[in-house]
Amino acid sequence: MLLKVNKSLNFSKKARSLKNIRFLIIHYTGMQSTRVSLKRLKNPKSKVSCHYFLDRDGNIFRMVDDNKIAWHAGKSKWKNINNLNKYSIGIELQNRGHFISYQNFPKKQIFSLIKLIKILMKRYKINKRNILGHSDIAPLRKLDPGEKFPWNILSAKGIAVWYPKFELKKKSYEYKSEVRRKIFFQNIYKIGYRFFNSSKKTKKDRKIVMAFQRRFLPDEVSGNITDKTLKISQLLS
Question: What is the value of pTM for the model shown?
Answer without folding.
Answer: 0.96
